[in-house]
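Record type: ASSEMBLY
Status: queued
Input:
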Amino acid sequence: MEKKKNISMAVIKRLPKYQRYLRELLDKDVDRISSKELSEKIGFTASQIRQDLNCFGDFGQQGYGYNVEDLYKEICNILGLTKKYNTIIIGAGNIGQAIANYTNFQKINFDLVGIFDTNPKLYGLKINDIEINDIDFLGEFIKDKNVDIAIICVPSRCAQEICDIVVKNGIKGVWNFAPVDLLIPKGVIVENVHLSDSLLTLSCLMNGST
Amino acid sequence: MEKKKNISMAVIKRLPKYQRYLRELLDKDVDRISSKELSEKIGFTASQIRQDLNCFGDFGQQGYGYNVEDLYKEICNILGLTKKYNTIIIGAGNIGQAIANYTNFQKINFDLVGIFDTNPKLYGLKINDIEINDIDFLGEFIKDKNVDIAIICVPSRCAQEICDIVVKNGIKGVWNFAPVDLLIPKGVIVENVHLSDSLLTLSCLMNGST
DNA sequence: TAGATTGTTAATCGATTAACAATC
DNA sequence: TAGATTGTTAATCGATTAACAATC
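Status: finished
Output:
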């Protein structure tokens, strides 16, 4: 499967979309698809699809196209979906609770193993069968339970502090919902969900001063 | 304020980040900032900052830099934050409820005026003082209340159907949380928050097959 | 074999960075 | 005035698209 290194972020950001469309084809029992057909569905050019996929290997076959199931599996593998992840949520507010209740991520092996907050009133309370814990136990917990991903749902002003704690305790992936840019050491990955940035993009485009 | 048209999406996606950092400077009572200083904070090159800002007008002054307050106001204006928006949420599940409870958007004039769902058990129930309504009233409501933005939080399989309804009733902006690519006519703006895509990007990067 | 479609190289397009004259 | 920093043009870099030989 290995091929080129230094895959551009542009390519990486398209991969989940490939995964979604291939999943759809798979569910419709489609066996094979050409870059041209996929192009029409997914909205990328056929050329781009072939370029993208070739970053990771020669998945197609001349004159035939791509085998949907094989390609789907390859993409899942590239996306790291063949592994299991232990995740924790820090901040049991609106977003934190929503993510905790959203079971779809658990279906693809992102296992929620802990929820943390600073509000003592919440301690012991369960969301989706996971107890909310005192944030003081955070560091200890991460090491004990081999947590892979920290989902940061705390207010902006505490986000960097929380990030520092989880990173210090060995977390390698941070999914950040706080509207701030976190500083992290090399080797740690942060992926941001900046809801407010997204909403502002929408209003910006709606205003057409662009 | 008008200047060039055809602003690239790359520029637009950076604007909310400018707004955030300028807000921060403003809160710290900083009067002026040069592209070089801002560059060090925000992480874009000084050159890029000047290029970006010049898409919209000559906001700076040679030898001085940019007036923080003025620039902040200009950015807010470009982002459409000087207007008021009526928004509705369709789908009162986890995400829908979390967004409904999140009051920060209301502080910047995104007013939640309605929540809709298909589950009769939820009708009449209030979130953040807004009653959950039968989705059958959706079209009527949009026209009556001059709704600007529909926030789609329904499951994937119903998202396109809901989108079609809101668009048919005059909605010009859709904030889509369903993990699907919605088809919309020209003139309507869709901004996606694809949480699962974001999580998959994280696991992809953590796996370093890239 | 003939037709289809890939993998890959070359051409194009767009976005970022560098440089500097204009000017506050 | 001298120094600083913009606005803007030119150079560079990277990403997308087009083209086509390789080959199933």
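Annotation: The radius of gyration of chain B is 20 Å.
Annotation: The longest helix of chain B spans residues 9-27.
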